């Protein structure tokens, strides 16, 4: 077999659909949990990567917390049973309604991204007679060496508090009776495959922790965000090297005895557990190009159109991956960017063949849209 996708149960399902390998998800979660437990690290799952109910249930069951970026995600995390004491709420633009909802549910912590947001949370918590736990999301100006659209930790990005605003931040924290400062938070980008980037992040985290300590704050929580990448070129049974990843933080963070280290992993946990399965509608053999036109498009999987992202494409109706013809693999949407891959080498392909777009567990189903009034995308589970 050239792929670990078993086509038998899939051949009669209506396409397109996301196909979930829940046992691979389980294996991935276990490996991550075991590696984190070695150092007593805390993992919050970044729900934005995938909020499919079955996926969330598995992640909740393993005991991870949830990293949410909207009121909707906070509600969903609570509904699925995530412990409210393990829910963090990040986001550069939390609305008053979302802040109030999170306060009512006594979540673990707000990751706060500006001085003004601190003032608003203080005021809203005060109106409820509560104290909100907050961590300051700091923009550390560390390059993640990833696609520029998914880089978040540089001075030019909108995320977090820049270093020059930290004195104002400390001042506001000291004057805010309804805020409890618990620590500092970072997230420098996504799909990070060069682990040295995280060493650079650790150096900055250490510096900022000292900065707060020198001003009389106790930094209980070091939240280093997520971003660990996956291998899109090798989708079969590729579980990220969680051991190596966590070891970097253990080795390079100057952790105080009572300090906790928190992570917000998304893609690394769910990226490989799903493929988008689509049927070939038409094959057009042009003079310069051969086109495969699928029944899935950018409305079902946005990443290639949005970030020129690579997803391995396989014709799973064939028994071999003896690739003999080059095709541009495109969707049915009326947009030229609705293209999953150019000059993709595949076996000779015909109408009705099933095509798998691999590694779509993260930022796949969740980013689907109704553009062109397309049907809701379905999910099938192994
Ligand atoms: N924490 C924060 C504050 C975040 O903004 C993100 C992702 C994560 C954690 C989780 O990052 P991960 O471990 O999944 O890399 N739609 C893009 C990715 C956007 C990531 C947004 N933030 C894509 O399809 O590549």
Overall spatial form: elongated
Provide the low-confidence segments as ranges.
Answer: none
Count of DSSP-assigned helices: 10
Bound molecules: ligand LLP
Count of the separate structural domains: 2
CATH homologous superfamily title of the largest domain? Alanine racemase
Major sheet attributes:
8 strands, mixed
**How would you state the average pLDDT, rounded?**
94
What portion of the residues fall into strands of 2 or more residues? Answer: 15-25%
Count of DSSP strands: 16
Describe this structure in words.
Strands 1, 10, 11, 12, 13, 14, 15 and 16 form an eight-stranded mixed β-sheet that branches. The chain has an eight-stranded parallel β-barrel with strand order 2-3-4-5-6-7-8-9, surrounded by four helices. Helices cover 28% and strands 22% of the residues. It is of the alpha/beta class. The chain folds into two domains: 8-17 and 272-381, Lyase, Ornithine Decarboxylase, Chain A, domain 1; 22-270, Alanine racemase (TIM Barrel). It has helices spanning 22-37, 53-62, 71-80, 96-104, 115-127, 166-174, 196-214, 242-252, 267-270, 303-307; strands at 17-20, 42-46, 65-68, 87-89, 109-112, 132-137, 179-185, 221-223, 260-265, 274-285, 290-294, 313-315, 325-330, 339-346, 354-357, 378-381. It is elongated, with a radius of gyration of 22 Å. It has ten helices and 16 strands. The structure holds ligand LLP.
């Amino acid at each position: 077999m050239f792929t670990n996708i078993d086509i038998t149960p899939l051949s009669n399902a209506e396409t397109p659909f996301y196909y979930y390998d829940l046992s691979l998800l389980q294996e991935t979660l276990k490996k991550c949990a075991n590696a984190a437990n070695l150092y007593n690290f805390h993992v919050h799952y970044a729900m934005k990567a995938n909020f499919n109910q079955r996926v969330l249930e598995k992640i909740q069951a393993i005991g991870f917390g949830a990293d949410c970026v909207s009121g909707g995600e906070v509600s969903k995390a609570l509904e699925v049973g995530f412990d409210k004491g393990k829910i963090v709420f990040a986001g550069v633009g939390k609305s008053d309604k979302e802040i109030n909802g999170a306060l009512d549910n006594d979540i673990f912590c707000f990751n706060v991204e500006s001085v003004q947001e601190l003032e608003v949370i203080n005021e809203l918590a005060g109106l409820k007679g509560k104290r909100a736990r907050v961590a300051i999301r700091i923009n550390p100006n560390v390059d993640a060496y990833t696609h520029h659209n998914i880089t978040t930790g540089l001075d030019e990005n909108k995320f977090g508090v820049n270093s020059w605003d930290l004195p104002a931040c400390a001042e506001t924290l000291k004057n805010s009776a309804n805020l409890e400062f618990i620590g500092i938070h970072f997230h420098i980008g996504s799909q990070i495959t060069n682990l040295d980037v995280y060493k650079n992040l650790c150096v900055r985290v250490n510096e900022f922790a000292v900065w707060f300590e020198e001003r009389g704050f106790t930094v209980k929580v070091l939240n280093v965000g997520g971003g660990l990448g996956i291998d899109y070129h090798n989708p079969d049974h590729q579980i990220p090297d969680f051991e190596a990843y966590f070891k970097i933080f253990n080795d390079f963070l100057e952790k105080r005895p009572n300090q906790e280290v928190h992570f917000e992993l998304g893609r690394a946990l769910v990226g490989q557990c799903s493929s988008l399965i689509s049927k070939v509608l038409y094959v057009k053999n042009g003079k310069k190009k051969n086109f495969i036109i699928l029944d899935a498009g950018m409305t079902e999987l946005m990443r290639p159109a949005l970030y020129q992202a690579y997803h391995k494409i396989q014709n799973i109706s064939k028994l071999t991956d003896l690739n003999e013809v080059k095709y541009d693999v495109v969707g049915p949407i009326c947009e030229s960017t609705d293209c999953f891959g150019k000059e993709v080498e595949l076996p000779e392909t015909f109408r009705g063949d099933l095509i798998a777009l691999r590694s779509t567990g993260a930022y796949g189903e969740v980013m689907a849209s109704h553009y062109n009034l397309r049907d809701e995308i379905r999910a099938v589970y192994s």
